[in-house]
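Researcher: Going back to the complex we discussed earlier. I've cleaned up the inputs and rechecked each line, so this should be the final set. Can you rerun the prediction on the complete assembly and write out the structure?
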Amino acid sequence: MQSVIESKVQENVKVLREHHIPLTTTRLVLLRFLVTNRGHYSAEDIYQILKEEYPSLSIATVYNNMSLFAKLGIVQELRIERDKVIYDTYPEPHDHFLCLKCGRIYDIETATRSLPKELDGHVVHSAHTYYFGICKDCRES
Amino acid sequence: MQSVIESKVQENVKVLREHHIPLTTTRLVLLRFLVTNRGHYSAEDIYQILKEEYPSLSIATVYNNMSLFAKLGIVQELRIERDKVIYDTYPEPHDHFLCLKCGRIYDIETATRSLPKELDGHVVHSAHTYYFGICKDCRES
DNA sequence: ATTAGTGCAAACTATTTGCAATAAG
DNA sequence: CTTATTGCAAATAGTTTGCACTAAT
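Model: Rerun complete. Updated structure for the full complex:
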């Protein structure tokens, strides 16, 4: 239902407010897109989709804001493809699987093993596991 | 000692032979560099270092061959930095830690947990975990 | 002989930046 | 009213490609 999406948008709006970051029209459009269309997108993907409705949107603005949203924890930046960053609109920590045949990315629940606080004396802030292989769909066809 | 390095070079030469890939002078220079200088390098790093001794070396050749070596399992391609691929000259599977302060990359022994053969119905061929945080050296200074 | 690799420069793609006009607080 | 953002175009950086020449098998 609409209100669930809107309340998730408002959560993100709150994050911006807490950081004293101006809530522009373009940012609200992007936030609504992210919450409405959960998935994995390149900056170009987002730009192409939103350009339909907002022809004056600039790809530089998409890049600037996705980068900002990543810093704020609103999206995740995935470095799973060889040539570009993919934004995961689902912000909770989880891992990813890339199908080497079809290129689709799947969310994988992070193993219950908890994030180590320390490794060889280094302090760990975050971790990300990427899996590679052949997905269910490709295997069956 | 010299012979240990040379025998490791020969292992890689054997891999090329098995795949019927010509062993050129440039490839041998690259292979010797990789075995002698274990570590994490960008294509540009390797190019800059070897250009001293081999001024006619081309960065395109470095890219071509590192990409080939990665396919053959002679090096690992790391997508841990935001803007470029890093080659790890140590080919055995292991994870990596990136220091968010100094940018150094550290090798991390892969958790004893074995690679799952399957995840949500997808067949897993490989996996890689990247850790991010503050390294021992930076924390102490 | 034949096939593949090298080095160079140019091309390409993802991303970033400079800047004038505009919108947000 | 002051500061930050937008959209555009141009710039940048990493990587790839086309091609003539050369080397490897």
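Model: Worth noting: The helical segments of chain A are 2-18, 25-36, 43-53, 59-71, 136-140.
Researcher: Good, that matches what I expected from the previous run.
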